[in-house]
């Protein structure tokens, strides 16, 4: 925990103190008292800069018995309870935060950026509890839904759920949503090492705070990147997100039915950040930023993940230091030394920071792009890299702005870039630390997936009779694009419809055989907006073979022409393995994977507002008999639409006739309850409680 008053305030105060001392030469008690008063009053014109490292709650995460040095052959069952409920930032649990920085670290205090708003939390924390386990541990999480009227689920992002597809957390695809007032137990194997993360997959709960870190470590001797770092500590996990000033569902509805914007206005790092300036008793302060401590001369493995909810890639850099990425989405890569790294929503990157500079505090900088850039709210943030034994800050938080978070130099994973420039490196240009399974043969399936925003009368937003897409004011249209879009590509052969003229609402399912080699060519037509879409695959990792950008916009036909001419160059020499990848605006990305995991696996854009309007599909891998059986008493859900019988009145009459069959019921009364005492006979309807079917409750309680 650190706090700093601006140097200018200290110098000015020194002059005031000397003047007071001169006037009160012989009254020692007066200057001391005046000293305090003048100090506080002068501080009113400056801003207090403060930061926080670990809190009592995050230390609880680190004290969990599963946070340990991983040993080969030794696994544990790691149990957690997540109580999901509506909560708030800057609530009563925060006491005098940010003016007393210790109060910002109190249990249940979610300071965020200092702005009060409703959130969805696990255990009243933002972000939620961090899970740190070892490979092959069994993870058991009881999710207690206390949301009142909303259901929930949790997706374990990066965990492939091999043999446990029912634990993937996609509502109505792999499980029923968890109803309010019930508990659901997730139980899965932590078989995929690396930096993963967990988040709600229901509605906008991820947007509103329902997310957290999930890190699966290996024994050091099994970690292929062990030679590149000295320390890998849970305290150096960075959970990044863009942040709205209201509930996600409100932003979504207002954006789609009016001209209201949906742009994030700041970023958070481990649930903290400066944005709202508070003032009390003429003292001004931001909520504290995150602080990571390092020892001089040591190399630290940082694990960063992006929970970006909007189209907000985040550029990460550290003043006076380079970053050396060594893994992406849990998969090792050849180390690359760069000045900055761009992280897209759903991606995870591990990078090494060498604490080799002059011991001092340095800014860790985060700059939001696209929906977060300076055309809109200029969302940015900082944290502190503090060398042990140092005090103070690199500067005042009041002086940090969007432009000051830029870092010049070599950039990895640059926004909307194609390989070949030399001043940056794309995800397609990095190399895996080892050769993954060979995907160079002719694929068994080759899918072309083009996407963009299309101007159609989606009845959820534009009633075709009352306020058609083409009849409302331009600022009220959701998307602006030509109408000649071939929607037939959006449903497979068994669900094909004529979607050329009308909006289609249908599942997009691609059926592939188990162990088949699948190639997917993603084409972002880029007609609407200057955008970018990070796509995430559940249940599998893929290899990134190619990436390119043809211009601000393109067509599937253009990319197909390149492919037919042999100009869609695929790299098969240690291509990087990932489960989340970006597609440049007006460009393409080519990926391949072996569909080795039977089940129904979602593939979707990881931007919350985009998946809500349909930017996703499902891979059905293998046949139904290949799926593992559901766990015993696993909750089921579905429609209940029995046949309508016209003799309902007769059924009701018969029911009450049966009730009218009287029986004698004797009831013992308390002494004095009636003059006669003893017993009284009651005559009237009686019936037995019907026996319910032996089926589990939807929430999974036994």
Automatic annotation (TrEMBL):
<keyword id="KW-0560">Oxidoreductase</keyword>
<dbReference type="GO" id="GO:0016491">
    <property type="term" value="F:oxidoreductase activity"/>
</dbReference>
<dbReference type="GO" id="GO:0006826">
    <property type="term" value="P:iron ion transport"/>
</dbReference>
<feature type="domain" description="Plastocyanin-like">
    <location>
        <begin position="494"/>
        <end position="623"/>
    </location>
</feature>
<comment type="similarity">
    <text>Belongs to the multicopper oxidase family.</text>
</comment>
<protein>
    <submittedName>
        <fullName>Uncharacterized protein</fullName>
    </submittedName>
</protein>
<dbReference type="GO" id="GO:0005886">
    <property type="term" value="C:plasma membrane"/>
</dbReference>
<keyword id="KW-0186">Copper</keyword>
<dbReference type="InterPro" id="IPR002355">
    <property type="entry name" value="Cu_oxidase_Cu_BS"/>
</dbReference>
<dbReference type="Pfam" id="PF07732">
    <property type="entry name" value="Cu-oxidase_3"/>
</dbReference>
<feature type="region of interest" description="Disordered">
    <location>
        <begin position="678"/>
        <end position="702"/>
    </location>
</feature>
<dbReference type="InterPro" id="IPR011706">
    <property type="entry name" value="Cu-oxidase_C"/>
</dbReference>
<dbReference type="InterPro" id="IPR033138">
    <property type="entry name" value="Cu_oxidase_CS"/>
</dbReference>
<dbReference type="InterPro" id="IPR001117">
    <property type="entry name" value="Cu-oxidase_2nd"/>
</dbReference>
<dbReference type="InterPro" id="IPR008972">
    <property type="entry name" value="Cupredoxin"/>
</dbReference>
<dbReference type="Pfam" id="PF00394">
    <property type="entry name" value="Cu-oxidase"/>
</dbReference>
<feature type="domain" description="Plastocyanin-like">
    <location>
        <begin position="236"/>
        <end position="389"/>
    </location>
</feature>
<dbReference type="InterPro" id="IPR045087">
    <property type="entry name" value="Cu-oxidase_fam"/>
</dbReference>
<dbReference type="GO" id="GO:0005507">
    <property type="term" value="F:copper ion binding"/>
</dbReference>
<dbReference type="InterPro" id="IPR011707">
    <property type="entry name" value="Cu-oxidase-like_N"/>
</dbReference>
<feature type="domain" description="Plastocyanin-like">
    <location>
        <begin position="107"/>
        <end position="220"/>
    </location>
</feature>
<dbReference type="Pfam" id="PF07731">
    <property type="entry name" value="Cu-oxidase_2"/>
</dbReference>
<keyword id="KW-0479">Metal-binding</keyword>
